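Aim 2 progress. For FAD/NAD(P)-binding domain-containing protein, the working sequence is reproduced below.
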Amino acid sequence: MPGHAHVVGAGPAGWAAARQLARAGWSVDLHAGEAHHPYNRVEVSKSLLVGTATAADHGLGAVPDGVTLHLGDRIVVTRGHLTRAATGEELSGPIILATGAIPRTVPSLADAHVLRTADDASLLRETLGGRGRGVDVVGAGVLGMEAAGSLTDAGQRVRVHDVAPEIMSRMLPDGAAAWLRGVHERRGVDFALGAEPQLDGDAVTVAAIGIRPDTELAEQLGLEVADGVVVDELGSTSRPGIYAVGDCSALRVGESLRREEDLASARASGIRGATGVLVDAGEMEAPGAHAPAPARRWSVQAGLRVTTVGEVVGAGAEPGAGAEHIVVVSEAEEFESVVVRDGLVIGAVAVAKRPNPRGIAATVGHPWDR
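Predicted structure tokens for this construct:
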């Protein structure tokens, strides 16, 4: 008989988990910390930041039948149990934690703006007030570069700072990153890389130095936490009946832990967590093990879509040991490259106005013979 579950957090992972359970006939209370209807967070650094769209324009869809959505519903831990702060109601039955991640901060950037929610984007836009005050973006990763591109398009004077010598060092090999930096420079973005940030006191500062899993509730519940709430392949935590999905979780793979901070992985994680609930309830058999698909990441910035597939970056923004980064196309608005090891393509990079225009991503896992 279908049961009832609670999902804490209404980002893409929590939304996917709630929808999957509802499809199985379960009733679900979906507790959203924000006052907005669940929306696509990838737009925070783009259309929501420059004001060309609202959170409602990027909503995740209609609330599925069987799901009750509670907006602005803060969940706390009281006497070892999750409860609704506003009512004191204790959550019972299977619980899926989908609390996501929060921006990393350092004392020197305590007063800087961050970009994680629609309200963060709105506050930064209001602070700038449409005037060209200048913006110091600290952090040249995906979020920082997306924000820099959006703010430049909106007429702001932007300088990007990072202690790393090149942008996007966790996503792109140096050759691809240098090409993309050139695109931003031609659009007017200034860079100060390879040194501690020297900020302009008159500029607005945006901290984009990464995110960390929001594990506060999990820690208060006594769950195992290590760079995220530790889970198995079906989202089960160290406490029976509690699951974790999305950015707040860390998947145990053998002796190591794996975290993936992208939209597709969040959705897949939510579905796995819902599957775990159904398996433990005896409503379905555990799915068989399967080889994971090559990791796929993407970003939209400077009018271009950046896509990586497979193993692209090793230590130090270079391909891993024994691998070679081969540039296939390098034009004004299009770049493609592959990472090859022992004659086999293990990763690919595609940057263009439309996704993967030449199909370079399809070469991953195949011999390189060009």
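The first helix runs from residue 12 to 23. This observation will guide construct design in the next reporting period.
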